[in-house]
Structures are given as structure tokens and as C-alpha cells.
DNA sequence: ATGTCACAGTCCCTGTGA
């Protein structure tokens, strides 16, 4: 199975890039975040023409997650089943694998209520993932750089979101349940980023963060043959500010 | 010098979010 996660920063603005990427890379499953559209606007038919089923949990102006699959798509879940008002989580089963598409709240600033929402949201995700009865892949834009290696300038980020201890502890809690950050496991020392700010020429300066992550359960992780970021998707006309993160499983 | 992008509302600019 080849699976990717990609924050597309508006599927309305990005559909052509996404379709091109699918045709060139032929993932079996693609997890999308920040579709920024309602379910009524989601291009189910266009994905079907590419040979993919899809499910979407949309909101409108903000957020929105999707799962696109050519290997089956059943048992779709939208949200945590609690009172989260934002469309940031969905799950589905594809070829026997339970896949989860996550758009973790940004947090904005350490003293912002949105930061507390982010921590609560990650705790809700951990609760949902604590019970697993199938092979599991959790992917998405986590808006947390797991370690200083995943940040282009750790000194500049002191006091900022995305690198704080509570955020990193929340990721560590996920890992403690037996989920593996597969890109990092397969590349323990490498500097790898998945997001670059549109501003400041950040991409060309190498100012990035690795915040788009793929967690696999240990059995799947042992079968993973590759995991990488497709930086070419960050280049060219009208890119998202995120690049797809891919895992290939034997 | 936030060297940007996307959205919605109300227009072709401004505020918001990232």
C-alpha cells in the first residue's frame, strides 16, 4: 500500500495540482486536510473519474478533511463524536487498514485559547486511538514539530506554538501507545520538512518545519519500505504551503 | 518590511486565519 497525507490549503484552489499529483504518483490512499469546502462542493465525481472513492467531512470556509482511496473505503467516521464544532478529523477503513485523517488546530500562541483547544483536541485524538482493532495509520497536519531536528530554527521558535513541551508531549503520548512516526524512524538523522511559510521566500531558504506526520502501528511500521516528503509538490504554480508525506508498505 | 495565499463580505479593498 502506498499512502500519502497532504494539507492542500483549499481543495478549490488546489484541485488541479492534487489531480496531477495523484496521476503521477498513484497512491492507494490519500489523506487530505484543509479542503476549505462544504461536502456539497467536494469533487467526488472528479476523483471517481481518476478511479478513486472519496469521503469528506467539510465545514466551509475553514478546515475540512477527506480520505481518497482506490482500495476501498468503508466505515467512515466524521469527528470524534463529541462537541468539536470544527471539521478536523475523519477515519475510514481502506483495504483492511484503519486510516485517520487529522487536521490538528494551529494553536496560534501559547497564551491563546486556541492553544488549549489544540491540546484538548490532541487528547481527544489519543482517546480515540487508544482502542485499535485493525492495522492503523494516522496521518495529517499535526501542527507540531516532534523534535528540534524538525524545525529550521529552534532558537527562533522558543515561546512559540508547534514546538512547546505540552504539544510534543501529546505526540509522545500517541507514540507511547505503539504508534511509530514512520518518516523519522526510516530517516533518524535527516533534516526533513513538510511545510514552508508562503512568506519570506521560506521554501527557497530552507526555512521549514516537519509537521505533517504519518503514524503507523508497530506491525505496519516493520513492513514500511519507504517514507518521504515530495518536495516537488511545493514548487511550481499555485502550490500548497505543505508538501505530501508518503509511506510505502510491503 | 510578514518578499504570501485563500476566504468571505462587500466589492475590486479589508479583516481573518494560517
Question: What's the quick description here?
Answer:
The chain is of the alpha+beta class and 250 residues long. The chain is built from 7 helices and 14 strands. It has a single domain, classed as Endonuclease/exonuclease/phosphatase (Deoxyribonuclease I, Chain A, 4-Layer Sandwich).
Question: Quick one: how many beta strands?
Answer: 14
Main sheet?
6 strands, mixed
Strand content: 25-35%
CATH class: Alpha Beta
Question: Using only CA atoms, what is the Rg?
Answer: 17 Å
Total helical segments: 7
Q: How far is the N terminus from the C terminus? A: 7 Å
Oligomer: single chain
What is the CATH topology assignment?
Deoxyribonuclease I, Chain A
Helix/strand/pairing category: alpha+beta
The low-confidence parts are none
Secondary-structure element string: EHEHEEEEEHEHEHEHEEHEE
Q: Name the shape in a single word.
A: globular
CATH architecture: 4-Layer Sandwich
Q: Order the strands across the largest sheet as they lie in space.
A: 3-4-2-1-14-13
User: Average pLDDT, to the nearest integer?
Assistant: 97
**What number of structural domains do the residues give?**
1
The residue fraction in helices comes out at: 25-40%
Per CATH, the superfamily is Endonuclease/exonuclease/phosphatase
Q: How would you explain this protein's 3D organization?
A:
The protein is of the alpha+beta class and 250 residues long. The chain is built from 7 helices and 14 strands. The strands form 3 sheets. Strands 3-4-2-1-14-13 form a 6-stranded mixed beta sheet. A 6-stranded mixed beta sheet has the order 5-6-7-8-12-9. Helix 3 (113-130) packs parallel to helix 4. The chain is globular and about 45 Å long. The N and C termini lie close together (7 Å). The protein binds one DNA strand of 18 nucleotides through loops.
